[in-house]
Write a structure and sequence with these properties.
Helix 3 (53-68) runs antiparallel to helix 4 (80-97). This protein has two domains: 18-97; 109-214. The termini are far apart. The protein has 215 residues and is mainly alpha-helical. Helix content is 69%, strand content 0%.
């Protein structure tokens, strides 16, 4: 059987968007949700009755939360994920045709960047605390990270770039010291790095003590 490569339509079709990449069962299940919406509110009703983003964000979250907690079908018998797919398709269509009321609680890109950086920094600190607790002999590190977490509870703000770089320097220095534990420096360069690493750790831990004293 030919794969169609000799048909002149093949080359033209190959240059177009291949919509068969969307799984057929998913499209079929979504169609059930779209049909339910059409029966209730009318086909493509959002093109004449402008939808607002916040309303659909709330609906999407409710369906996702219900599914995440183990419920498959909504009260109308339609799968929660199908409702999510239908709502997303509606929002995209409304956005493209220009009827979407975009009332999202937007943040400036720089603010979003700071929030993500803050969350990442908090995750790193918690990971370090967990790792330290796994090593019961490292009481000093446990105390240090616990102090940092306590300070963050008092001052919930994103870290500055300087603070992020400082913590990275501390982490690198601590990792180098741990890697060199029980070993002698192989040369002068390695000895200098070890000395500098110890200075970085000592300086940072003294800074944390000073911050605690001033809190």
């Amino acid at each position: 059987m030919s794969d169609g490569s000799t048909n002149p339509k093949f080359a033209h079709g190959a240059s177009r968007l291949n919509q068969t990449v969307i799984p057929v069962p998913a499209r079929m299940v979504q169609a059930v949700a779209n049909r339910d919406g059409a029966n209730k509110y009318g086909r493509v009703n959002w093109r004449t009755n402008a939808p607002d983003a916040i309303t659909y964000i709330g609906a999407l979250q409710r369906h996702l939360d219900a599914w995440a907690m183990g419920e498959d079908e909504a009260d109308d018998g339609t799968h929660h994920l199908a409702h999510i797919m239908a709502s997303c398709s509606l929002l995209i269509d409304a956005w493209l045709v220009g009827t979407l009321i975009d009332n999202r609680d937007k943040l400036e890109p720089e603010v979003r960047k700071r929030i993500f950086a803050y969350v990442d920094a908090q995750k790193d600190k918690v990971d370090r605390l967990f790792a330290a607790r796994q090593r019961a002999d490292d009481e000093a590190l446990i105390a240090k990270v616990e102090r940092e977490l306590s300070a963050d509870c008092r001052d919930l703000r994103p870290q500055t770039e300087e603070e992020v770089n400082r913590d990275r320097e501390y982490d690198f220095a601590l990792a180098f010291i741990e890697a060199m534990e029980g070993k002698e420096p192989a040369n002068d360069v390695e000895g200098d790095l070890l000395r500098q690493a110890r200075e970085v750790v000592a300086r940072r831990e003294q800074e944390v003590l000073n911050e605690d004293d001033g809190a």
